[in-house]
Design brief:
CATH class of the largest domain: Mainly Beta
Strand order of the largest sheet: 1-5-8-7-6-9
Largest sheet: 6 strands, antiparallel, barrel
Structural class: mainly beta
CATH architecture of the largest domain: Beta Barrel
Distance between the termini: 24 Å
Oligomer: single chain
Strand content: 25-35%
CATH topology of the largest domain: Thrombin, subunit H
Shape: globular
Order of helices and strands: EEEEEHEEEHEEHEEEEHEEEEH
Length: 294
């Protein structure tokens, strides 16, 4: 990467959380008027990993591997607010209790609304995890910036991931960012208007299957980097013509109206200084050798 960053100014410190119990919402009404009862957010998920397709599962908003929370009873207050805010994608997560103690994983995203931090661990650790276990995260990355591009904002990203993304300076004053897909802003749904882009996500609406196929979003995988057109995430998710947001797919599809695969913002430019370039291997799992690439 030929772009200067402020890595030497960042703070690294510890935050701690535990496995959050999976939620049961009971019967839910889909965008097609059906009632479904499916597994959803939270818990320890053995068979969904970074790299898996986001579509086709008998589940809704599935979070891969392990979902963590510091205080599920008070998700929008400290200490859980700090746990979510300062845990960055790519940070190391270390199990500090139970039979899986000592296992090391990687933060792969934050899920807004429920306020979960999602972490990837290998199968050996997953088999030993219980709902009582806790993990310490070496929080590092909030405050990351591109020194020569002050109008591009970075959120919730470990510098080590940024360096592996293949970002390069472009001749026209923009930066070139590899992504697996480009999402039209009109498809973004649940989460719009929220200002907590640093600790949550917003969803690609998938109720229009033809639009999903048209823009080749039916191929999306967990961990994929995507660009969202005409969206500015500087101070909350909003439509702004010409703006560009880059994010990572952090949970699977949903059957609910206005919902779909969740995308966590990692980068945004209100002036469109981000030039997305299609690269099929632009996936967090490939960069860090986690998930299906372990």
């Amino acid at each position: 990467m030929n772009i200067r960053i402020n890595e030497d100014r960042l703070i690294k410190f510890a935050v701690q959380g535990g496995v959050v119990y999976p939620k049961c919402y009971g019967w839910e009404l889909t965008s097609r008027g059906e009632s479904l009862l499916l597994p959803s957010v939270g818990g320890i998920t053995y068979n969904v990993k970074v790299g898996d397709p986001v579509f086709g599962l008998a589940g809704d908003h599935i979070e891969p591997c392990v979902s963590l929370s510091s205080d599920p009873k008070e998700p929008n207050k400290d200490p859980n607010r700090a746990f979510n805010t300062f845990s960055c994608i790519g940070n190391e997560a270390i199990v500090i209790s139970g039979d899986a103690k000592g296992a090391r994983g990687v933060v792969t995203g934050h899920h807004g609304g429920v306020e979960h931090v999602i972490a990837d661990f290998d199968d050996a650790a997953l088999e030993k995890f219980t709902q009582d276990d806790k993990a310490l995260i070496r929080a590092y990355g909030q405050g990351l910036s591109l020194i020569d591009y002050p109008e591009i904002k970075i959120f919730s990203l470990d510098p080590a991931v940024l360096k592996k993304m293949g970002i390069v300076a472009a001749a026209d004053g923009k930066i070139d960012v590899p992504v697996t897909a480009i999402v039209p802003g009109m498809l973004m749904g649940s989460g719009l208007g929220h200002n907590d882009v640093y600790k949550g996500d917003y969803d690609i609406q998938t109720s229009d299957s033809e639009a999903i196929k048209k823009y080749k979003l039916d191929r999306l995988r967990l961990g994929d980097f995507v660009a969202i057109q005409d969206h500015d995430s500087s101070y909350g998710w909003t439509y702004r013509k010409g703006a560009v947001t880059v994010g990572i797919v952090i949970h699977t599809d949903s059957h609910l109206a206005g919902h779909g695969p969740g995308v966590q913002t990692i980068m945004t430019s209100c002036k469109g200084l981000i030039a997305p370039r299609i690269e099929p291997d632009a996936n967090l799992g490939i960069y860090l050798k986690i998930g299906r690439w372990r």
